[in-house]
Amino acid sequence: MTRTPAFPTVSPPQPEKRPVFDLHHGVTRTDDYAWLRANNWQEMFRDPSLLDAQIRAHLEAENAYQAALMADTAQVRKQLFKEMKGRIKEDDSSVPMKDGRYAYGSSFKLGGEQPRYFRTPREGGDQEILLDGDLEAEGKAYFRLGGVDHSTDHRKLLWAFDDKGSEFYTLRVRDLADGNDLADRIPDTGGGGVWDAGNDGFFYTRLDPNHRPSKVLFHALGDSPENDRLIYEETDPGFFMNVGGTRSNEWIMVGINDHETSEYRIMSASEPFAEPKLVAPRETGLQYDLEEGGDVFFILTNADGAKDFKIMTAPASDPVRANWQELVPHEAGRLILSVIGFKDHMVRLERKEGLPRIVVHDRNSGEEHLISFDEEAFSLGLSGSYEYDTEIMRFSYSSMTTPAQVFDYNMRTRERVLLKTQEVPSGHDPDHYVTRRLMAPAADGELVPISLIHHRDTPLDGSAPCLLYGYGSYGITVPAAFNTNLLSLVDRGFVYAIAHVRGGKDKGYGWYDDGKRAHKMNTFTDFIAAAHHLVAERYTQHDRIVAQGGSAGGLLMGAVANMAPECFGGIVAEVPFVDVLTTMLDATLPLTPPEWPEWGNPIASEEDYRTIAAYSPYDNVAALDYPPILALAGLTDPRVTYWEPAKWVARLRDRKIGDNPVLFNINMDSGHAGASGRFSRLEEIAFTYAFALKVAGKADLATTAPPILLDSQTAL
């Protein structure tokens, strides 16, 4: 590395080595730190106090070590938190959405960490608080609300909460007449439910001991959960399952899917004791989603080679595949993302040439029109409607410089009504910032999109530090959306950039296919190519780039750290999926079987084993001069278990050369999403930003715009 930031000389924790060996496909691996995985992890996720004392002592020592190394950033962290909190409207409220005689929304009170759910009369009036998240969270170290759904008769509220961070949600039912919860209490659910047509009960998913939604059940209000009727049980652990309804309240839909195959079963919402009917049996590689359309279902599918998806219809009375008829044909390069049906219209969200767009289809005339936008790069979201028989639908818009806006749109008259613009109480002037979209050449000739934002006064001579974010898995596209938090870095002279690497769907479904399984290396080399391009275009220098990614994006961080440590001045890996091979070899873990279509099955396939082994960060740690690395995790995380980053950090310290430190910050009271409160979450973001400032040589900057720019070689 050309520049080493100043960290105090403190000895890091040195966990004992207890070698464990495994043999697969003739390959023997040694894992010195496997003991950091709690043998009782299923029980510990429900009750963290059951964590083995030796493991707890090690994790607490890690927290003490990172606290010592980051102690000199205490002031800048306070300043960052103050700035980010100052950009949040503390008593913010959503625009209520109409449903029958009411309009429903959510809000925060001044100083509140959790949302409140409310309703008003349909045309406006006094708010009635239905559920106060802050009140429910009192006395709990962790609390997160799940789904909140009012009954169609507006008399009851079905709501869910998780108070461990392990994503085992408990369902409750609130009587809206008196505000009290009924006796019904159902633990270990997926976090939501769907009312039947008579509002006499609801459908929900039950999680098994390995945290998989294996059963859909119906609960009749007032009955014991032990008597809940089994609607469907999925016996293949490789499939996820969910249950949903339609806005017309006519249908209950059980969705079953992995990352490349889907299947639906449907039943009438008015017949909760009927057997669900199969729409189209699962066929490897066939994906389809159902959306209501009155006497038809709209079907979004990749059937018949429609790689970027097409829309078909089928009679609601018999929607089997033989009855599917094409409505919107497949168009290569135009990826259809989602569909919402209304009585007289159908709306689709699609992505073309890297940008999202909304298309409105008139069901009577067949005419279509686009909702247009002016900026070079932006983010769109469909909020839809509670109501099916309406001409009004809702969408959101933002860009990296434009605060989020919420619109109601009349699909018949094409009138667009701005309902709300995100307020930034401390002030925001879009003219102070520049946003760009670049194309970085990859080694194989592909062009990797980069969305970026910087302050207009930031010199583009290579001296600016850069936070480069990436994800690149599961087809997830990182939107070029407005984010008030990142302004704290941009106002200090940072360039903030998003590398839209393969593994997402930024350039169509093929962009996803080219970044998974046998092609996974493209995700990592694309990110490295983006870093090289930012340097070539004089936005920054390699030793001033701080790379950031979380979850599968944390895998990206671990891989590029091994492949090109010289390209980065620092790396932030949040809840990082860094022990990929070990996890994919363990079929008992919550997400392993459903993840095999994404990563490959190294148990059954030697080719998959060797593919994953070639990039799995934990397996490829070597005697390299790594940049400073910060790993973050949550103790009760069921998605990326805490022991993955704990082991990775231990191996990095054992094998690396050079003096750059590896820090591990584990939240002992949270899971995958980090702290649950909106302000406590800001404290975690302030910590990661302080690390980025520190390794970039700017941790002493406690002021905001206009940015104070330091010479590129300034040290702490």
UniProtKB/TrEMBL annotation:
<keyword id="KW-0031">Aminopeptidase</keyword>
<keyword id="KW-0645">Protease</keyword>
<dbReference type="InterPro" id="IPR029058">
    <property type="entry name" value="AB_hydrolase_fold"/>
</dbReference>
<dbReference type="InterPro" id="IPR002471">
    <property type="entry name" value="Pept_S9_AS"/>
</dbReference>
<dbReference type="GO" id="GO:0004177">
    <property type="term" value="F:aminopeptidase activity"/>
</dbReference>
<dbReference type="InterPro" id="IPR051543">
    <property type="entry name" value="Serine_Peptidase_S9A"/>
</dbReference>
<protein>
    <submittedName>
        <fullName>Dipeptidyl aminopeptidase BI</fullName>
        <ecNumber>3.4.14.-</ecNumber>
    </submittedName>
</protein>
<dbReference type="InterPro" id="IPR002470">
    <property type="entry name" value="Peptidase_S9A"/>
</dbReference>
<keyword id="KW-0378">Hydrolase</keyword>
<dbReference type="Pfam" id="PF02897">
    <property type="entry name" value="Peptidase_S9_N"/>
</dbReference>
<feature type="domain" description="Peptidase S9A N-terminal">
    <location>
        <begin position="12"/>
        <end position="421"/>
    </location>
</feature>
<dbReference type="InterPro" id="IPR023302">
    <property type="entry name" value="Pept_S9A_N"/>
</dbReference>
<comment type="similarity">
    <text>Belongs to the peptidase S9A family.</text>
</comment>
<feature type="domain" description="Peptidase S9 prolyl oligopeptidase catalytic">
    <location>
        <begin position="482"/>
        <end position="698"/>
    </location>
</feature>
<dbReference type="Pfam" id="PF00326">
    <property type="entry name" value="Peptidase_S9"/>
</dbReference>
<keyword id="KW-0720">Serine protease</keyword>
<feature type="region of interest" description="Disordered">
    <location>
        <begin position="1"/>
        <end position="21"/>
    </location>
</feature>
<dbReference type="InterPro" id="IPR001375">
    <property type="entry name" value="Peptidase_S9_cat"/>
</dbReference>
